[in-house]
Amino acid sequence: MSNVPNTSKSSSPSLTFLVLAVGAASFSMLQSLLAPVLPTLQSELKTSQSAVSWVLIAWLLSAAVATPILGKVGDMIGKAKTLVLALAAIGLGSLVAALAPSIELVIAGRIVQGLGGAIVPLSFGIIRDEFPPARVPSAVGVLSAVIAVGSGVGTILAGPIVDLFGWHGLFWVPLAVVAVTATLAQFFVPESPVKAGGTINWLAAALLAAWLIALLLPLSLGTRWGWSSPAVIGLFALAVVLAAAWVTVEVRSSNPVIDMKMMRLPAVWTSNLVALLFGAAMFAVWVFLPQLIQVPSSAGYGFGATVSEAGWVMLPMLVSMAVAGVFSGRLAQVVPFKLQLAGASAVIALSCVSLALLHASIWQVAVISGVYGIGLGLAYAALTSVIVQNVPASQTGTAIGMNTNIRTIGGAIGTAVMTAVVTAHQTANGVPEEAGFVTGFLLFAGVAALAMLVSLLIPGARRQVATAAVPVPAE
């Protein structure tokens, strides 16, 4: 098994990185691009609020299933080849949704789009395989920043895209971007020299998909269905049974989808636990900070902002996320990634406390969001770097795919808990009370503090990867 960078397609790491960054950003924006305009979709397609919510839920479930499984496929048959297929899936899903005359076909398009979730682990795996070791940490940091910022930029761009092109533009724009990116990938993303070989254990893959869906579905719909409803309790119980069956099959398999020995590596399980906690704290703030900003000022604490205005208030977060992610690799020369992760968690905890106590003025919220973004940017980059440093090259895509999935599960849990807390503190006319946001932010400050402690348990890297002198790959 060779791990020598392959230059048969491209001798330019910078061009390879650019293609990976655009592809990863395209997928990450799909996470938030539709959320602000669900009311528009509901009105234009003459559907119900319950039905239109599946535009988000269907994408989440599809991405959760596809990310680790297609990450495994990439490790087996080649990451570049699988990357092009993932980009094509986003393009096909975008085309279906853009032409859809009904909400059902929009949802179908979003399911196909979700298969593009594999772009994230595949891109990091390609960096690991193709770039000189000295440039891997910085490249990972910059790509992490691109992914993190892309998730937030979608919220800001959604309104202008709809104003210019209508709701169909939310799908035509990604289609155009991924069509160009997939074409460029054919020329500038070399095929990985590191392949695990083997075949997919389809029983294990089916069980993995089944327990993820059984877990994420009630987390997404528990507030609507009722947390004590038979459907929610039954699905949670089913998720436990299916997860246990999945682990049993994987342990006994000679060719597992997710190698349980790899998952038990100290650096991997601790990083995955941090990802779960980090995802919970991140999504709780990401989803509910805009809602706090949009609360009518007549409630005594909100600012009555529009969706677009709330997005601009959070712009400092996006900027600081980008800067922190870019410099994570360089910072690793003096601060190991595990300590970066611990520091990032501490910054997130401090920011949550600050949001709970200091939100009387819009400038306070903007400044705190900027500080919060520093924690997010460092955490994104450091989490991925810890995985890259501690798993075999042939399992990079699988390991990062599972870590990404666990962060998504944490995000679903965090959003569900924050929703329950805020919903429990409402006025008679349904306006959230300030106490709900304060309680929720303080709760997730504690979650972030726990992530900080777990970060300190992460062992040192199995291999020392030199750090780049510049933040992006050079020619």
- Report the total helices: 19
Structural class: mainly alpha
Shape descriptor: globular
Say how many strands there are.
0
CATH homologous superfamily assignment of the largest domain: MFS general substrate transporter like domains
**Unreliable parts:** 1-7, 463-475
- Name of the top-level CATH class of the largest domain: Mainly Alpha
Keywords: Membrane, Transmembrane, Transmembrane helix, Transport
Domain Major facilitator superfamily (MFS) profile: 16-463
Transmembrane segments: 12-31, 51-71, 83-101, 107-127, 139-158, 170-189, 201-221, 227-247, 268-289, 309-327, 339-360, 366-388, 408-425, 437-458
InterPro entries: MFS (IPR011701), MFS_dom (IPR020846), MFS_trans_sf (IPR036259), Tet-R_TetA/multi-R_MdtG-like (IPR001958)
Could you describe the 3D structure shown?
There is one protein chain. The chain has 475 residues and is mainly alpha-helical. The chain is 75% helix and 0% strand. It contains 19 helices and no strands. The protein has helices at 13-33, 38-44, 49-52, 54-77, 79-98, 103-114, 119-130, 136-165, 169-188, 202-225, 230-252, 260-263, 266-294, 307-313, 315-331, 337-357, 362-390, 396-423, 434-455. α4 runs antiparallel to α10 (202-225), α8 packs across α17 and α13 (266-294) runs antiparallel to α17. Mean pLDDT is 86; it is low at 1-7 and 463-475. Residues 16-463 form the Major facilitator superfamily (MFS) profile domain. It is a multi-pass membrane protein.
